[in-house]
Amino acid sequence: MKKIEFATFGGPDVLRVVEGERPVPTRGQVTIDVTHAGVGLVDALLRSGLLPLPLPFTPGLEVAGHIAAIGPDVTGFEVGEPVVALLLLNFGGYATTVAAPAISVIRLRGKGVDLETAAASIVNFTTAFILLSQIAPVDPSSRILIHGASGGLGTACVKLARALGATDIVATTSSAAKERYLRQIGAATVLLTSQLQEKPDGVATRRGYNIIVDPVGGEVRRQSLGLLEQRGKLLVVGGAEKTADILLSSTAIWLNNAEVLGVNIGAMSAAQPERVTAAGRVVVEMLGTGQLDAGAIEVIPFANAAEAHRLLEAKRVVGKLVLAT
């Protein structure tokens, strides 16, 4: 089999296609012959050295394909059936065959969801579902601000918020060219990130939001704290900016009765894998029935993973990138 790995931290060019030994499922695992692997910003951040990792390392948090083999103590799957898997516990999705914990694999047969859509959607929409259905439940009265809204997670949050009945959805983006796309997927208002810096009579600061989703960080996160209404929730779900890690005023949090909640889907999957997979199953059902639409998907050949990372880091991606093996 083939896999894509990096043996040193650095830019996209450190990614290499290498030959690997075909995995054999151990107890509680299945193996999957991958047709599509999702590409996320976290993959690029890890490649650049965000965290210490054992090297060489193969990124990739989500794959779709067909069951290749079934390990001991695993039931409920058939060899050859289509599935999607959340690899939040072990990464390794940039490969033509992967081993995955059976508890994190979702069957697709009869669901009306193709493999490309499943791979593009499962992590981001599952995260969005946990955020906006469980942690900060959305309803028709919600006022929601979603940062980085044209990316994979941002797109999922806009679409899911709309599916859950919200209409007052404000999306931010760094590029005016993405405004039409964001309105098409359900944003009522689109702001450039620079508009968050307006004076109190500006569009962004004239109103309070009861939910803000922030996968960006940096100055955007600091500004967001001041845009919350009383008892509003700031959901910290990533750090796309190089200066993502900033200090927030605990006094401001206290005085405004604000809730700042960190949500890391990987850590949640380690602690509560059943919860994450259950949310993923709901997402698959919603995609299959048309309640959710995966949105823009750009498919790139497996061997061109470095180009996919370049597009992500240049902020030239609308929606989701997927590698096709």
Describe this structure as you would to a colleague:
- By secondary structure, this protein is α/β, with parallel strands linked by helices.
- The protein folds into two domains: 2-122 and 288-324, Alpha-Beta Complex (Quinone Oxidoreductase, Chain A, domain 1); 141-263, Rossmann fold.
- 29% of the residues lie in helices and 26% in strands.
- It is built from nine helices and 15 strands.
- The protein has helices at residues 41-47, 115-135, 152-163, 179-185, 219-225, 250-255, 265-271, 273-289, 305-313, and strands at residues 2-6, 15-19, 29-39, 62-70, 82-86, 97-101, 105-107, 143-146, 168-173, 189-192, 209-214, 228-236, 259-262, 297-301, 320-324.
- Strands 3, 4, 5, 6, 7, 14 and 15 form a seven-stranded mixed β-sheet that branches. The protein has a six-stranded parallel β-sheet with strand order 10-9-8-11-12-13, with helices on both faces. A two-stranded antiparallel ribbon has the order 1-2.
- Residues 198-206 have low confidence and may be disordered.
Q: Which term fits the overall shape?
A: globular
Quickly give the CATH architecture of the largest domain.
Answer: Alpha-Beta Complex
CATH class category of the largest domain: Alpha Beta
User: Could you state the order of secondary-structure elements as H and E?
Assistant: EEEHEEEEHEHEHEEHEHEHHEHE
| DSSP strand tally | 15
The stretches of 5 or more residues where confidence is low (pLDDT under 50) are 198-206
